[in-house]
Amino acid sequence: MATPGAYQEHLPAVPSWLNKGDNAWQITASTLVGLQSMPGLVILYASIVKKKWAVNSAFMALYAFAAVLICWVLVCYRMAFGDQLFPFWGKGSPALGQNYLIRRAAVPESTHYYENGSIETAMIEPFYPMASLVYFQFNFAAITMILLAGSVLGRMNIRAWMAFVPLWLIFSYTVGAFSLWGGGFLFHWGVIDYSGGYVIHLSSGIAGFTAAYWVGPRLRSDRERFPPNNILLMLAGAGLLWMGWSGFNGGAPYAANIDASIAVLNTNICAATSLLVWTSLDVVFFGKPSVIGAVQGMMTGLVCITPGAGVVQSWAAIVMGMLSGSIPWFSMMILHKKSSLLQKSQPFAGSYYQ
What we know:
It is built from 13 helices and 4 strands. It has helices spanning about 20-50, 55-80, 100, 130-150, 160-180, 185-190, 195-215, 220-225, 230-250, 260-285, 290-305, 315-335, 340-345, and strands at about 85, 90, 110-115, 120. The strands form 2 sheets. Strands 1-2 form a two-stranded antiparallel ribbon. Strands 3-4 form a two-stranded antiparallel ribbon.
């Protein structure tokens, strides 16, 4: 029987270096990460705020997803992963040409050498085209922007947000991404950020805290009472976020290998442990569990495991989940009540336990 056309070895669409399994997993992982944002965080944000801010909050996430994609392919991908311009920034240029997108992926895009001519850092060359890598990294950039949006829900004008998104992406996100992942100075120092603990979560967290401080606090009545407008939809959005995280950490090795399998398992173990610890602390100190608390515990667990999901043992993922479910709980439920600064940047919990 003749070999089907799609499986013939020498077609232009099937070069010798292409591994269809790796390519299929990378596209799948990219889509899972995308689902975290669209519709995951769109639904979560619209549901977790008061009804009067639901549409605005959902649109902030929707707009960011679209705006980041266009900025990403026009200039930002190669600022984050292209040839070096500065030790912390790449040379920005479009990632749209066919010749560029169909060639074999490479990270960083150039080999770096010592002064004596020996290789300092070789390229990582996954077995799929640049198009798959550009799309995968876009979804990372998009969710970073949307996570940042969570800090200013219910307090930021949509037009200000529309201007803020491309500016922050260009002048902040690309710097961290290039420095750690794209061949910048931290990359050469050997700093490991498995799947965005620094590039994504630390940067979005610090930027969100800073943005919330400068935008200013919500009204006092809102800070004291901020119940979600739809708990069931909030849980649906949280579920999409949790399940999508398998692509987040599972796609980070750039291959469908053993590392990806361990990362997916550790991701879910840490998230579950963190959720249970947070819920248990709610019961012990407040006498009842909280759905919002469970969601926040899940999210802190997912964030905590991300920097090392594929490089730690599974028992360590449980320990990390215990820490991520208790330390943030203490800072949000206890410490923030004693700090006027934290109260000004308060997220969605706190008052819901009253």
